[in-house]
Amino acid sequence: MPKSQVRKKKVYTPPTDVRPAAAAANKKPSPTWLPITAVTLIVVGIAWLVVYYLSSQRWPVESWSYWNLAVGFGCMVASLGLLSRWR
Hints:
Elements: H1 20-26, H2 33-54, H3 67-83
């Protein structure tokens, strides 16, 4: 039985206007302060919430009442925003 012909696939070349490799090559690495600040914000946010709950809502700032939760979670959300910029 004769062997069938092997089809040659065309090599894919992406369009010249959309090249993710070329765009990624131009980006510089993140500064060293960025991950340090992000980790610090996560730790501060968690510590703020832990102190708030363990002190029966008296610390860190008693007059803020439930806004202490916003501060703790705000620190953690801000760190996620920073980490989204990390390369």
